[in-house]
From TrEMBL:
Matching InterPro entries: CoA-transferase_III_domain, CoA-Trfase_fam_III, CoA-Trfase_III_dom3_sf, CoA-Trfase_III_dom_1_sf, Formyl_CoA_transfer
Function: Involved in the catabolism of oxalate and in the adapatation to low pH via the induction of the oxalate-dependent acid tolerance response (ATR). Catalyzes the transfer of the CoA moiety from formyl-CoA to oxalate.
SUPFAM superfamilies: CoA-transferase family III (CaiB/BaiF)
GO biological process: oxalate catabolic process
Species of the source: Paraburkholderia monticola
Protein's UniProt name: Formyl-CoA:oxalate CoA-transferase
Keywords attached to this entry: Transferase
Length: 415
């Protein structure tokens, strides 16, 4: 079946996580993604966190599906020529080098435009223009600089980073949207353009509600859905709110049966206002449905701690799945805390292609997260990541190089 991005060729100069997640998505949508790697070494993640000696790590394989790999020494004069040929043939160049690396290689925006005015040059950087623009950045730096860490964790503890890779994979997603948008604009203008997704900006975009809260705090000095209310104190900045729900419907993580030994025997419970009476019935506190201290959402806000403690007395008598089943019967929003082990075994996620088993010639079968975005007319089939340089000859031939030229370039160390 045809794919949404059939015919789009991507020169993938990405490494580590942020850039590769972006180009992997584009590959899943049908783009031909040609990953350019350093000869002999490749993307550093090939050898990071290895679980099998001398075999591409899961870190690499899970971020580079459906791509082709060519090895080029882009600092070698003849390697540069090969890269120029690729730039002329591709629609998009995606990179996430440290600031200035592409320029130092000789591929400035102006040079790329000379070679191919239709080329879209898309970059992930740690920061946008400003005091930190020259800094190298990894995931947790972005989480800290983008407002996630200062607003995550508990009031009496230090800032905490989250396991979700919002700095890397989150920015990759932002960049992918920028690229397809630029491709669409190019259909009218015929011109390429630069696309920048800074990791700080991407994280901040995902922390938008916390900037909302900063302004609420500045105006009123208090936020009633935060656990600091009514007994704790608010400072000048948005505090860490533990497991409180980010929205207007208070929620918290509650213990379930087995919590003493199972670190994930918990459920997220939301006291959504429209189902308050049902919640009271389920936990056996029918009187709360009409009592003036509990019947309305504003009346409940100063009593959330007591209310969640009471609900927890009920959830602790059920497993998280039992609780989920009962609560869902009454349309009470809740969610089990699922471990990665449970998620990996979940049949419905396998069925939708969100979790996929892939076969790899060196490592055998492994699980990966498939394309989370489903298009009805452009289904995703997840193919294994390429071995280092696996497609060098194939791509060189497509660029018009003869077998003799390829051998000569290889001997010269350019590819
Ligand atoms: C992630 C990061 C910190 C890694 O830094 P690093 O390992 O030092 O790697 P760099 O990006 O600086 O690139 C290293 C060098 O390899 C060179 N290189 C890369 N591919 C090459 C190739 N095929 N042939 C020859 N040289 C190559 C680059 O030109 C650069 O050389 P230079 O420093 O002399 O200019 C940095 O790339 C960065 O800040 N990226 C932007 C933000 C980002 O994406 N971070 C998230 C990572 S998940």
């Amino acid at each position: 079946m045809a794919k949404a991005l059939d015919g789009v060729r991507i020169l993938d100069f990405t490494h580590v996580q942020s850039g590769p997640t972006c180009t992997q998505l584009l590959a899943w949508f049908g783009a031909d993604v040609i990953k350019v790697e350093r000869a002999g070494a490749g993307d550093i993640t090939r050898e990071q966190l290895r679980d099998i000696p001398d075999v591409d790590s899961l870190y690499f394989t899970m971020l580079n599906h459906n791509k082709r790999s060519v090895t080029i020494d882009t600092k070698h004069p003849e390697g540069k020529q090969v890269l120029e040929a690729l730039i002329q043939k591709c629609d998009v160049l995606v990179e996430n080098f440290a600031p200035g690396a592409l320029d130092r290689m000789g591929f400035t925006w102006e040079r790329i435009q000379e070679l191919n005015p239709r080329m879209i040059v898309a970059s992930v950087k740690g920061f946008g223009p400003g005091p930190y623009e020259d800094c190298k950045v990894y995931e947790n730096v972005a989480q800290c600089a983008g407002g996630a860490a200062s607003t995550t964790g508990f009031d009496d503890g230090p800032p905490v980073v989250t396991g979700a890779q919002i700095g890397d994979s989150g920015t990759g997603l932002h960049l992918a949207l920028g690229i397809v948008t630029a491709l669409y604009q190019r259909t009218h203008t015929g011109r390429g353009q630069r696309v920048l997704a800074a990791m700080q900006d991407g994280v901040l975009n995902l922390c938008r509600v916390k900037l909302r809260d900063q302004q609420r705090l500045d105006r009123t000095g208090v936020m009633k859905e935060y656990p600091q209310y009514p007994n704790g104190t608010f400072g000048e900045a948005v505090p860490r709110s533990g497991n409180a729900s980010g929205g207007g419907q208070p929620g918290w993580i509650l213990k379930c049966k087995g919590w003493e030994t199972d670190p994930n025997a918990y459920i997220y419970f939301i006291t959504q206002a429209p189902v308050w009476a049902k919640i009271c019935n389920v936990i056996g506190k029918e009187e709360w449905a009409t009592h003036p201290d509990y019947a309305t959402a504003p009346a409940r806000l100063p009593r959330l701690k007591e209310i969640f403690a009471e609900i927890e007395r009920w959830t602790m008598t059920k497993s998280k799945f039992e609780a989920m089943q009962i609560l869902n019967k009454y349309d009470i929003p809740c969610g089990p805390i699922l471990s990665m082990k449970e998620i990996a075994a979940e049949p419905s996620l396998r069925k939708t292609g969100t979790i996929v088993e892939v076969d790899h010639p060196q490592r055998g079968k492994y699980l990966t997260v498939g394309n989370p975005i489903k298009l009805s007319d452009s289904p995703t089939d997840v193919r294994r990541s390429p071995l280092l340089g696996e497609h060098t000859d194939e791509v060189m031939a497509e660029l018009g190089y003869s077998a003799e030229q390829i051998t000569a370039l290889r001997t010269a160390g350019a590819i």
